[in-house]
């Protein structure tokens, strides 16, 4: 076992840098100029890329290399980064050899279109599961963090970790969010739930909830085609630490992170209550018979 810093120590050390990155992203949002798309895809959520993505990642990379040079690190823009080669690895390692990941602007399309519900998401991964995650919402002056088996917390950006309060959502909106490429479930679900389909309902003019709506109470459940560890999977972990139910589409427990391919959990169902979760899983099974 490596003599690694604790997940809490990593979060506490990086929080001032994440605050600065949040202030930077908020400051330049109105004047941001988009760089070329990352790759050819019809997923406008995935292909959007801005100067903020690259700058935030570089800033956090410098902080990590300065404070924790032996940690593994995977940044979403690792192929474009000047710093990737200085990290020991970008891959998930053995148990207790932590991998830090970063989505420098989760919801880049939202960010480019001037919407407030983009985030900076940093996670700490172990071979078996998430150790920690932190998600900053610069435009909303809010951040959330979760530590393994310790719950999820919320605070203002100026708050230190110990100043944050446990996150409790008493009455989330009774809405199910369908992530990208899950719109085919809409017909089966619509008779039972109010839906938001991010692919069909996205608007440049009016913001709709993103996956982070599960932490704000804007939605009660989220269905994802895959749960990328750096973003959707991280938010699902935070919801689970808050007390929400989480599983694969068929209701089965999620596999160890090391047993997944390409940094993804399989399709996810996250719901505010166990009864809602069971109903969603049952409906998904009907929509996609085994």
From TrEMBL:
Organism, scientific name: Vasconcelosia minhoensis LEGE 07310
One GO MF term: metal ion binding
Binding positions for Mg(2+) per the UniProt entry: 76, 103, 106, 231
Protein name: Inositol monophosphatase family protein
Keyword annotations: Magnesium, Metal-binding
Entries under Pfam families matching the protein: Inositol_P (PF00459)
Cofactor dependence: Mg(2+)
Lineage, uppermost ranks: Bacteria, Bacillati, Cyanobacteriota, Cyanophyceae, Nodosilineales
InterPro entries linked: Inositol_monophosphatase-like (IPR000760)
SUPFAM superfamilies in the cross-refs: Carbohydrate phosphatase
